[in-house]
Predict the structure.
Amino acid sequence: MMQKGLLNVKKIRKDFPILKRQLDSGKPLIYLDNAATTQKPLAVINAIHDYYMNYNSNIHRAVHQLAEEATAAYESTRQKVAKFINARSTDEIVFTRNTTEAINLVAYAWGRANIGKGDKIVITEIEHHSNIVPWQILTQEKGAKLEYIGVDDSGYLKMDQYQKHLDSKKVKLVSVSQMSNVLGTITPVNDIIKMSHERGIPVLIDGAQSVPHMPVDVQKMDCDFLAFSAHKMLGPTGVGILYVKREILENMPPFIGGGDMIKEVHKYETRYNDLPYKFEGGTPNIADVIGFAAAIDYLNNIGMDRVRDHEIDITRYALDRIGGVKGVTIYGPPNPMDRGGVVSFNIGDIHPHDLATIMNDHGIAIRSGHHCAQVLMERLDVAATSRASFYIYNTKEEVDALIGALDEARRLFKI
Amino acid sequence: MMQKGLLNVKKIRKDFPILKRQLDSGKPLIYLDNAATTQKPLAVINAIHDYYMNYNSNIHRAVHQLAEEATAAYESTRQKVAKFINARSTDEIVFTRNTTEAINLVAYAWGRANIGKGDKIVITEIEHHSNIVPWQILTQEKGAKLEYIGVDDSGYLKMDQYQKHLDSKKVKLVSVSQMSNVLGTITPVNDIIKMSHERGIPVLIDGAQSVPHMPVDVQKMDCDFLAFSAHKMLGPTGVGILYVKREILENMPPFIGGGDMIKEVHKYETRYNDLPYKFEGGTPNIADVIGFAAAIDYLNNIGMDRVRDHEIDITRYALDRIGGVKGVTIYGPPNPMDRGGVVSFNIGDIHPHDLATIMNDHGIAIRSGHHCAQVLMERLDVAATSRASFYIYNTKEEVDALIGALDEARRLFKI
Amino acid sequence: MSDDIYREIILDHYRNPRNKGKMPNADVSIHDSNPLCGDEIDIHMKIEDDKIRDIKFEGRGCAISQASASMLTEMVMNKQLTSVKDLTKDDILENIGLTNLGPARIKCALLSLKVLKLGMVKYYADRDPTSAKKLAEDSRAL
Amino acid sequence: MSDDIYREIILDHYRNPRNKGKMPNADVSIHDSNPLCGDEIDIHMKIEDDKIRDIKFEGRGCAISQASASMLTEMVMNKQLTSVKDLTKDDILENIGLTNLGPARIKCALLSLKVLKLGMVKYYADRDPTSAKKLAEDSRAL
Ligand SMILES: Cc1ncc(COP(=O)(O)O)c(C=O)c1O
Ligand SMILES: Cc1ncc(COP(=O)(O)O)c(C=O)c1O
């Protein structure tokens, strides 16, 4: 059912009811905050609705019909996720709340068992707080060290620094995001993983920005862990995914203890459940996991290659147009092939927060601030940036509207 | 807007679309699995739908209109929750995925900072795995001890054992469920908390079964922690609530590290956010938290006293009718005033799983198994029980249908 | 539907299980449980010349899981492991005459096969790692 | 709407902030940031006879937060703490002429007041615990 060629954006837009929204400003919504969370197609909204209207039930532990239906739907999402990232088995797919919880799961369960005094964990300067703070907490607890791979002025990782860290021989984990949520940088994860595996070091990939926007294949990439969020790829809020290679997952102690993750509980000891259930304690977010399947279907139907092509196209246009506005600084790689559909910029001395307010007058939703990447902000020596980020339903006309609003901001701030 | 007198169940049933469902057996749904999860009124389903159709956005960190609307709705749920359990402040309300995660949060964040070698944690034999396994993990890690308050043959806690544990002077935490999900027992939490506070020991209340079914006031009860799940009280899956007294929460280290829970992240150190955000890392389950507000409104509109009265009424009837069936053993307190709307039983040598299959032929959804309470199963010396559990939309006619199916089971198994 | 499940023969095996009990000096003993319902099965075997000379089970659980275990022991008693190794899900369901179970109840019917396969994994672990690996995969899929 | 916000006077205070800078021997120094946008404000004060003898701020952030901080320092310079203590949200918003901000931007406008209140909490901590407690409550609500 995969389609070919350029996206039919007009047709796609019809599937997203919110895009018809009129805002208080009287303007129609121009949604350019997709790196924060994407909008949802009707198919996803309806899947959740259908679940609650027709077969809402707790799962796994009952034999009545609703429970069987709900369990089957829940587990079928797991199959779709496994296939979407080309995992070997559904055993390797753990549902969490979001990318953040997925990374914390690794830090708590794997990290506390495998990181010791003097060990090093290597991350990069472009990481989201979700891929920094868990490692700060872990390394502080264990007396281990956190090391950073720097980023150059064009937004590329300094691979020589990575090499040096590896040479120090103390590295026990490398954790890198595949696409920066600020610079858009697509990082050389294949090289990073290869170099690391040569030394027997596992690698966690933060796929929060990459998995929604380009084809990702865990077997080809050969990462050990991959974390991403449903809500950033047309799915509902409240669902994250942690992929872990089975050999590693099998040896990981549990994280959240409680119902569903056990096989047998006795007063003073417990036998944990099979993979992946061992890592899903308590009643899961059933409705939203089921809703997420509709998002995967939707993306599969378009094809991730075409999603990527569309974003390269619109990002190239946006880099051109925004770059042409007087007083603008754009951050990140200049070549749209090296970046995702994220454009961060500043203009004159207008603070991004003020710019976002002005944008909002025009119905344009952009994000402003540190984007949960304060380490990168320090590196760029800015307090904040404005960020426009694109997805399958965005058009060049919307970029044009952004340019119009930028001109208005320049007028107000006399730039 | 609170109503008075008996519930108008006929009217209430109209608000729950799933109750019109025809099952494969050709029978209409009789849903008696409410202790596992409840059904959702249209108001809740619509609130989620409305969010995705009209103002889906990430929260807290943006100034565009969608983000402001979503943030306001998300935070207004927090206010409603605080009011529902009479917390002093919204600062004391942390959103989690479910009760299980809420208890784990306490075990990881508070527990690891406050429990040491030789310390004791006291729980009871009626606990759900979610209130056992986290403490097993913690006590094993810390070289601490887990102690149990026993339960007598009628399902009441052995308070003299509790007294003895307290006298041992090593107890650092007491964690007790306010209502058993198997026996229905309502535990004497006021006494338990009072006795414990006299020795300066904090108390966690597992309110997964109590908060949905009776009025609960954290200030009156004076508990230090309270955990419960939205999905067991008309709300969506994927939302749990952890109440923590502010004095305690203020001194708790964080649990999930990442976006939203920080104030300032630097390369090697982080300043955490204000309460309660410090404990909500990553993009929350925004849609479902917003949907939960509609569930609270719905329950408030009925009044929790009337919910409780309805359940006493139907439970009394069910205890009578089920107890009258030949070969039946009922577990838990005989007096419906001492228990919630949960009736666990066995009949002859019919295994609960087989009974549930037979029930399913009649459109009746009951739960069978160990109900995530294997320690209690060992105490009762049964492998499993069947459990019918009630909520505001259940009727005595549905109990009658259950009796009819029980007779059919006796015929099949020749009892 | 329940009329088709709870037939005379199932109830008979449930109430009068064959080959049930302990086996003090078994060559292989193995235990597993169904996380869904808590049903438990132990299987003990004496194996000579790759043949199941004796088999016993212990367990507790529903009529389906216990009757199925009882019938399985009869089915494999005195059989060569080479033939037992490849028993499939469908072989079992046909043997016990329950081909129309829903997904949750199927797990009950197949628990004893799963435990038997795990037992053979143990037996083959050193003797024939390839078979052991295949059996482990099979048991995981049940 | 932005036309009403980004008026001449706001831009002037943003670009030419009054009382901005360090204060080496301040009696009270306090720092806080807005977790929403990362805006930061430090406030330094010299206090004599319960009077703010000097006040300076440092900070970075949006025009609203920085202009508001600049205007706040002018507003409280040489004022008695007793009168400064009770400054409300509305006092500030009227002072800077921004009464129609949305909830997110209001946080920007009130950050400096929040920091000022926290500074007074510090000052009153030993001198007048009741006032300190009230100020802490107030600042939390901002
Ligand atoms: C008493 C009790 N505690 C905890 C839980 C766990 O709730 P959840 O699965 O929503 O985390 C349950 C629900 O089954 C329960 O009944
Ligand atoms: C690169 C990256 N990592 C992690 C996250 C955290 O995702 P979530 O908030 O869904 O946990 C984000 C989202 O903002 C991100 O962009």
